[in-house]
Amino acid sequence: YRYYERKFSRKKVFDEDTIMADLSTTLRKEVCLHKCKEVLRHMPFLRHTNRAGLAWVALRLRKQVYLGGDYVFVAGEIPSDLYLLAEGEVELLSGKSDDVLTSLPAPTYFGDIGLVE
Questions:
Q1: 109 — phi, psi (to 5°)?
Q2: pLDDT digits (tens, 9 = 90+) for 8-23
Q3: Using CA atoms, how far apart are residues 28 and 77, in angstroms rounded to an integer?
Q4: How far is CA 95 from CA 40, 72, 77, 99, 102, in A?
Q5: Long-range contacts of range 20-26, CB-CB < 8 Å, 24 or more positions apart?
Q6: Which residues lie closer than 8 Å to 62 by C-beta, 6 or more apart?
């Protein structure tokens, strides 16, 4: 319920997937790159990536919305995805007591350890 309340309050009620599917490949790349450029430019591992490489990454991103109190993954789990935080902040909690270890403000990334494990 909270997700839809947040979505409707921002007046984003169109089906983005349907719209994107109707675009040409070139236009789809440009739209994805435009939507993601702000968060992508803050990722140090993409700093020297050319426009075509950034478009390739942008096309493969999946938007996920988490609300306050949601867990992205639990301490001790190895994440299966790399998360690029576009807005808000994420708290890293102690696995035993839920004490806040640190807070990461957007734009940032986390979950990268799962890519090398």
A1: -140, 160
A2: 666 656 777 888 888 8
A3: 34
A4: 29, 13, 10, 8, 13
A5: none
A6: none
Burial status of residue 34 (CB atoms within 10 A of its CB: 0-12, 13-18, 19 or more): exposed
Phi-psi region of 33 (alpha: psi -120 to 50; beta: other; left: phi over 0): alpha
pTM above 0.70, yes or no: no
pLDDT value of position 8: 66
User: Sign of the C-alpha dihedral, residues 106, 111, 113, 116?
Assistant: negative
Mean pLDDT, the chain, integer: 83
